[in-house]
Amino acid sequence: MATVSLEKLVKRYGSLEVVHGIDLEVADREFIALVGPSGCGKSTTLRMIAGLEPISDGNLKIGGRIVNDLPPRSRNLAMVFQSYALYPHMTVRENMGFSLKIAGLKPEEIAPRVDEAAKTLDLTHLLDRRPSQLSGGQRQRVAMGRAIVRDPDVFLFDEPLSNLDAKLRTQMRVEIKKLHAKVQSTVIYVTHDQVEAMTLADRIVIMRDGYIEQVGTPEEVFHRPKSKFVAGFIGSPPMNLKDAEIADGHVVFANGDRLPLPVKFKDRVTAGQKVAFGLRPDDLYPAGHGIHSGSEADVHGHDLKIMLTEPLGNETLVFSQFGGEEWVARMLNPRPLNVGDALPFCFDLAQAHLFDRDSGKTLRG
Predict the structure, then answer these.
(1) What's the CA gap between 18 and 83, in Å, rounded?
(2) Which residues, 6+ apart, have CB-to-CB distance to 361 below 8 Å?
(3) Which contiguous run of DSSP H or E holds residue 232?
(4) Using CA atoms, how far apart are residues 285 and 345, in angstroms rounded to an integer?
């Protein structure tokens, strides 16, 4: 059982604590993604799991066994790095089999494992090439193949796609998803790209300043964020988040513009309470967008001035002004829009979020 347990895991550099007693349970064969902004502690956490950074406090268990003091080679993990870390003077075959050679396996034992991994990753025709003769995506597949041949309990990925262009990143996401389906190993994947996390992971761990903000499925962290930070971090483009105050059964914004208080929050807020109002671009419907998801009672309309548009082919991002601030909406069935025009918009209040302005925590309950 390749379970991974983090129990009150702490990392300090001298007097500076950068990971603050985090707890996490990773199930056997689960794909977990650690995401967050730079400096949030996700890569440090991965390196502690790998044994590349000593653990300052707490316990790390793999398969139920405490491995705090075990060296990396004794943890039966395989790590795929951002930089590929291939030996330039070796062929693909030699790179993939090198760790097995170091472990003392015979050539006749290494060859079938390399061949099988190469077949899995469509590398068979490249086995006799050197890294300099490969594209970035091919080099990353070789790095994954080198990990596969070891038959590890856990795969660790440290931002493996960040060096690739946008098209290759999309292709490699598909490759990694296929790989997980084939090898059925536990995967812990670090990325700063929330799109990667949403498309690849069974569960997402969102980190901030060395703490875990939320753990959940992609659907949970997108639709039920537990904090303003998570709401703003997950989603592309991010959620519209605007400071407001509760008054007379309304959410009142800085310039006096108001929306009716969503029904689901009526018993969770009080008059005068300072909040952050959140609405995803998908739930702010410009005229022509398509069919909204709420009932008529949940939708409140306004005419808003168009400030900017971003045509993206099958959709257009529309930037407008409300409450004295800029909002972004996603328009399906896009049509040409002129900056400065007023356009009817509908706010789907059934999909709205409210967060306490001081703590940043959701008021949804």
Answers:
(1) 24
(2) 226, 227, 228, 355
(3) helix 228-233
(4) 5
Q: Sheet of 57-62: strands edge to edge?
A: 16-26, 4-13, 57-62, 65-66
| Cα dist from 327 to 241, 319, 324, whole Å | 9, 6, 10
Beta carbons within 8 Å of 117's beta carbon, 6+ residues apart: 96, 123, 145, 148, 149
For 157, phi then psi, to 5°, come to -120, 125
Helix (H, G, I), strand (E, B) or coil at 163: coil
The model's pTM is 0.89
Chain centre distance of CA 3: 21
SS3 of residue 354 by DSSP: strand
Instruction: Provide φ and ψ at 279, rounded to 5°.
Output: -150, 125
Q: Mean pLDDT over residues 309-325, rounded?
A: 91
Summarize pLDDT for 235-246 with one digit per residue, the tens.
989 999 999 999
pLDDT digits (tens, 9 = 90+) for 109-140: 999 999 998 988 889 999 999 999 998 888 88
Residue 24's alpha-carbon distances to 1, 90, 175, 302, 352, in angstroms, are: 16, 38, 26, 44, 29
Written as one letter, the residue type at 98 is F
